[in-house]
Amino acid sequence: MGLSTHVLDTMNGCPAAGMEVALYATDGDNATLIKRLLLNHDGRTDAPLFDNASLRTGTYRLRFDVAGYFKARGVQLPEPNFLNQVSLDFGIAHADQHYHVPLLVSPWSYSTYRGS
User: Fold this and answer.
1) Tell me, what's the pLDDT at 51?
2) Angle 79-24-111 (CA atoms, 0-180°, nearest 5)?
3) Residue 20 in contact with residue 65, Cβ under 8 Å?
4) What's the rounded Cα separation, in Å, for the pair 101 and 79?
5) Given Cys at both, which of 9, 31, 63, 89 links 16, Cβ 3.0 to 4.6 Å?
6) Residue 80's CATH number
7) pTM above 0.85?
8) Closest alpha carbon to 67 in 110, 6, 3
């Protein structure tokens, strides 16, 4: 299945439908945008970020527009926001394996792990 992500809104207890996500390839401090997309009604992408054939070893970044998502839901956020963009830097060591990068998020906290 390659690389996938899933975002759950822990403040409202639902998938983060409509959240903008950007995927970058990274090399040290340099980041190259690969794609930008919106999460579907289930808080997932409609297709894998990378399928098995295109997944490569290397380092990557997923950047989630947390403040934009919660503002669009009508949540009153302070200025500046506590969380704006959440960036997760991670490595792909085995391109033949599935990498799933879920995010659990509220306007004030987040957590992640390597999912299955």
Assistant:
1) 93
2) 55
3) yes
4) 29
5) 9
6) 2.60.40.180
7) yes
8) 110
